[in-house]
Task: inverse folding
């Protein structure tokens, strides 16, 4: 319980620091076009830093699965309510481009910011662990912050799991336009938690290329190309498959001209949720 308490404190600290920084940056850059990119970087850092801590609790701390899933659900809701329009996922950024909500230049800039946030979290979190706030952090430090091989299957199966997870999340978000805005974040968080439960033992169920780069790519066991195949190609194909199915194939089979209107629903309408 002491380890969990410290981890909860760190999760809250990561979110608090990120939120304060977001608000300061928004006020300072309100008259420029750079605010959204700073918010994108900070929000992705928050996502990755919190996931690092949850991953440590699960892999090294060996907490009960129900506790880990509960924390996953809660932190997913918190991310949704605090991101302030940030996307935090390269696959979702590509979906925004497909739906013509963002230009290609803006999408590339946002993806770059997402990976900057991912690298910042990957670099800074070990320094926090090195402070030894809990026995869990001390044990992790003694083992050199080594990461356990996150892929417990063949590479094709791992990629299929990540593809499936991304497909389910994208499909769920696409069809949640009818859900009341104040419940939408909870519904998406529930879907994410269910996928973590279903696929977490195989690949960690990350389905986010930037998040995977921060939390999984530093682990031993596979090459950069192999991790890219599972954690980058899988999610991108999952989102693309969902878009193709519901925007092209189903409309053709049903005789409708387009499914595009349903795709124009933001991932999280955070400004209205708060």
Result:
């Amino acid at each position: 319980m002491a380890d969990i308490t410290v981890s909860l404190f760190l999760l809250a600290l990561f979110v608090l620091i990120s939120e304060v920084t977001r608000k300061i940056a928004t006020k300072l850059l309100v008259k420029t076009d750079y605010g959204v990119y700073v918010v994108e970087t900070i929000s992705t850092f928050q996502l990755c830093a919190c996931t690092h801590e949850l991953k440590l609790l699960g892999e090294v701390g060996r907490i009960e699965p129900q506790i880990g899933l509960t924390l996953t659900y809660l932190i997913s809701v918190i991310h949704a309510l605090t991101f302030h329009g940030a996307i935090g996922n390269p696959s979702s950024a590509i979906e925004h481009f497909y739906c013509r909500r963002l230009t290609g230049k803006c999408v590339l800039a946002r993806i770059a910011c997402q990976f900057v946030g991912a690298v910042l979290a990957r670099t800074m979190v070990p320094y926090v662990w090195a402070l030894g706030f809990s026995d869990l952090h001390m044990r992790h430090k003694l083992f050199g912050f080594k990461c356990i091989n996150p892929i417990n299957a063949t590479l094709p199966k791992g990629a299929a799991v990540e593809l499936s997870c991304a497909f389910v999340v994208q499909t769920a978000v696409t069809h949640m336009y009818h859900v009341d805005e104040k419940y939408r974040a909870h519904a998406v968080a529930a879907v994410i938690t269910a996928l973590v439960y279903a696929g977490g033992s195989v690949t960690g169920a990350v389905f986010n290329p930037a998040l995977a780069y921060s939390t999984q790519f530093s682990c031993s066991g596979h090459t950069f190309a192999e991790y890219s195949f599972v954690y980058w190609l899988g999610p991108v194909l999952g989102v693309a498959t969902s878009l193709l199915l519901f925007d092209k194939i189903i409309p053709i089979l049903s005789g409708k001209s387009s499914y595009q209107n349903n795709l124009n629903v933001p991932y999280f309408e955070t400004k209205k949720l708060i």
About this structure: The mean pLDDT is 89. The two ends are 31 Å apart (CA to CA).
